Amino acid sequence: MGSTGGAGICHSYVPDGRCITLLKVLLTNACLYDCHYCINRRSSNVQRARFTPDEVVRLTLDFYKRNFIEGLFLSSGIIRSADYTMELVIDVARKLREEHHFRG
Ligand code: SF4
């Protein structure tokens, strides 16, 4: 559910019907896999970039404090393995929730 219009910003609906604004970002667009429908597949000739978990945390908090977003929609290409990648994604969530008390 939601729209992907606008660079890095998407909208989604929460259960009470409100439309919220999310920062939509990938930890990295580099990926081990080669899904044919995906622009970030291994064989795609796109420029690659990668954030550290701390960079995504900082980016999210900065956007949130400026009232640009209400939450984070984080995904990623597969870096070393699915488990390794998910550990990094969870690290972002844990830092936001537990270290910075982010409630978005
Ligand atoms: S990012 Fe996801 S959809 Fe794209 S190639 Fe990797 S695994 Fe497939």
Give structural notes.
- This protein has 104 residues and is an alpha+beta fold.
- It has one domain.
- The chain has two helices and three strands, in the order E-E-H-E-H.
- It has helices at 53-65, 82-99, and strands spanning 9-13, 19-26, 71-75.
- Strands 1-2-3 form a three-stranded mixed sheet.
- A hairpin with a 5-residue loop joins strand 1 and strand 2.
- The longest helix has 18 residues, at 82-99.
- The radius of gyration is 14 Å and the shape is globular.
- The mean pLDDT is 93.
- Iron/sulfur cluster binds next to loops.
Class based on secondary structure composition and strand pairing: alpha+beta
Widest sheet, order of strands: 1-2-3
- The poorly predicted ranges are none
Main pleated sheet = 3 strands, mixed
Compute the average pLDDT.
Answer: 93
* Overall strand count: 3
Level of helix content?
Answer: 25-40%
Alpha-carbon Rg, integer? 14 Å
Number of helices: 2
- Molecules bound to protein: iron/sulfur cluster
End-to-end Cα distance: 18 Å
Gross geometry: globular
Which band does the percent of strand residues land in? 15-25%
Instruction: Supply the number of structural domains.
Output: 1
H/E element order: EEHEH
Quick description:
This protein is of the alpha+beta class. The protein contains two helices and three strands. Helix content is 30%, strand content 17%.
